[in-house]
What does this fold into?
Amino acid sequence: MKKWLQKIFVVSVAFLTFGVINPNHEIWNNFEDDLKPNRLQEPSANDISSAIQLDTLLYEENSSLAQSLKGAAKTQSYIKFGPRIAEKIGDEFEARIFPKIEEAIDMTLARLDDDKIQYLMITENPSGDYAERIFNIRERGSRVDLIRFHVRTENRPNEGFYYNFHYHTKEDNFAVHYNLGEIYWSKDTPPKWLA
It folds into this structure.
């Protein structure tokens, strides 16, 4: 459309001046250059500053989301434990296991694009009885799990009961156990989850 407008303008000037004014090609070249984006233009200080501010904003948003996910992870863990189990293993969980859960969450987020991170969520309602699921981190729209955190109750003869904390990832189709650590319960049978 701009070419069409330019041609009409040239014809109009030629017609109105009856050939007295010769078209200067330099004018038209500059006119065309103004229409083309300048690809070789150096970024200005404002462009660089804006890019840095945008990166900082994205980092802060992702960092805030990571903190929200970690906070929700801790909440879901304590819901899973219930008051009886939490009272006995809470301190050891906070000192040894939860920092590893945070690392696993950070590693998962580091592998994702910034635009995908904002659409993550933590599942609620951990499984009860003796089932393993604590929580999953999944994509909100597709509801596809990216990482699953579990705790398994193990009865070792002559030793007693242990809680084995581990996680699974989507990358290996949730087949591999990534160990987070163990916490000893006692020789007595532990209560069911959520009790």
